[in-house]
Amino acid sequence: MLHLDHLVKKFGGLTATDDVTLDFPAGSLSAIIGPNGAGKTTLFNQITGHLVPTSGRIMFDGENISGLKPAAIVRKGIGRAFQVASIFPSMTVEEALATAVSAHNRTAFQLHSAFPPLNVRHQTEELLALLGMEPVARSLSGEISHGDQKLLDVGLALALNPKVLLLDEPAAGMGPEERWQMMDTVKHLWKSRNMTLIFIEHDIDLVFKTAEIIHVLRYGAVLASGKAHEIRGNPEVIKAYLGSETDTVKDAV
Amino acid sequence: MNSTRIFARTSLMAVIGLAVLILIGVIYPGTWLLDTMTGLFASGLLVMSLHLLVGYTGLVSFGHAAYFASGGYIFGMLLQADGVVAALGGWAVPIATLVALLGTGGFALFVGLICARLSEIYFAFLTLAFQMLLVSAIQGLVQYTGGDQGLTGGIPRPEFLGLNLVEVKDRYVFSAFLFMAGLLVIRLVTLSSFGATLRMVRDNETRTAFLGINTYRVKVAAFTIAGMIAGLGGVILAIFTSAAYPEWAGWAVSGEAIFMIMLGGLHSFYGPLLGVVVMRAINDITLIYTTHTDLAKGIAILFVVLVLRRGILDWILDVRATRRKRGTSGDQITSQALTKTAKGTKDAAS
């Protein structure tokens, strides 16, 4: 489905993505982990067209999409939610989701009928139910809880019915209980929509319990890839990342 | 409610609104009232169309008067041109109105294509630059525009559909029609799917692009529509004054339009219209006593920004919403008041 082929991204002298070759099969649920500054978000930014790779290819459905504009890549079927929830604060949850559905249906420029059109309204209701956000449907996006804002961000991406969904730390900034709830919801969405899901996460327990395949990045390069038990037993990974908390902090600096 | 019904209902409201305006003209046919209203229609369309950009799309244009003047000048120049009135006869005014609308739309599209590439302050300054360019063009092309003197000598307005625009009442009726038509278009745009897309761009342009929407195209389209409606306002003023002046394209007109939006309320649809009426009232009442009208307007703006911290209509709606909440829970009122204050401060700051 999505294949990164010898991807390199350099910022001046810094190599943020160092010859990354990764494969994300259709319908898989993968996690990308690594210390701060390992180049996880940079990788996402290249896939979604926010950054242009220095060299290498990003193959999606057999087509090289590297260098395309974000809007074009989204329309091809790669959706994304952000580390800091990126939402529309002055709209209600319902309205915000409806605008995303409208964007997907190509009715965003429509002038001849009131918003939201009937079919958009139906799809929005389905989406609200799927996300379990009916209780806050009429609340302003800017005034709902942090967890709900993160979920709404995922919902906006989901409205586009993506083949591949990228989630950048979906549980960031949440309390322990909320984090597990969020990952449960994410897993539920992944199953019900039958899509390829890739997420970045710092919480190792969360990753091991949720992801099918885990890719570990370090200094922009792939350190290891495999199932949870393989990663847990990998001495390189233990040394680099799963060691003591202080080691992780050192890596970050 | 069904989405087509909302459009039908809004259009019906516009027709009723027009009927009420015409009825006012029939019941109180005084020159002062009707001429004042006609002037308000012209400013109303200028301000409401600018609000589509400032309030709904988050595009602060400092040069919106350019399209207002463009509408008036195209209308006037066409009707003053040799042989046009003779050739078109009774159709002259409607056709000139349409040409002014389309011509201004083309002009706004051209400027929009260039300006919408830039963001925020750069966008604002470039729109201002194009406005200055238009003023220079009007002043320079003396043989077509009359230069500093404007389009003088009267704009011929042959009778059509039984309306003689030289008559105060007929002029008022036609202006009311143009005003309600322009207002209806803006209202329908804000209610449509495109209107929701405008609010997305205002709230979070980056996210909008990540939903696969070409935000550049959204901004250009909004700019063009707003320009056309402003041009319609210019047509009303040209009909009213039977002239057009380079001052119409001046920065003072653009600036006052932004003031009127702030005065009336940025967050409600009809707020800017209230701003137009209040500004006019301040102006006319002050003139009874002194000619220092700008001083009075300045004090009003300071009061709104520093005391109410939001436009008049926004303030009224907020107070009403708070009253309605009262009785449910004391905490809720406090929290709401706090968020409103925070919001107001942010608005004032921006």
From TrEMBL, chain A:
A single BP term in Gene Ontology: L-valine import across plasma membrane
Transmembrane regions: none
One term under GO cellular component: plasma membrane
Record key words, sorted: ATP-binding, Nucleotide-binding, Transport
SMART domains the record matches: AAA
Domain ABC transporter residues, every copy: 2-244
Origin: domain of life: Bacteria
GO MF entries: ATP binding; ATP hydrolysis activity; L-isoleucine transmembrane transporter activity; L-phenylalanine transmembrane transporter activity; L-valine transmembrane transporter activity
Name of the protein in its database record: Amino acid/amide ABC transporter ATP-binding protein 1, HAAT family
SUPFAM superfamilies reported for this sequence: P-loop containing nucleoside triphosphate hydrolases
Automatic annotation (TrEMBL), chain B:
Main location: membrane
InterPro entries xrefs: ABC_transp_permease, LivM-like
GO cellular component terms listed in the entry, alphabetical order: plasma membrane
Compartments where found: Cell membrane
Organism: Thalassovita litoralis
Signal peptide positions (record): none
UniProtKB keywords: Cell membrane, Membrane, Transmembrane, Transmembrane helix
Name under which the protein is recorded: Amino acid/amide ABC transporter membrane protein 2, HAAT family
Molecular functions (GO terms): branched-chain amino acid transmembrane transporter activity
Chain segments annotated as transmembrane: 12-34, 40-59, 66-89, 95-114, 121-142, 172-199, 220-242
Membrane disposition: Multi-pass membrane protein
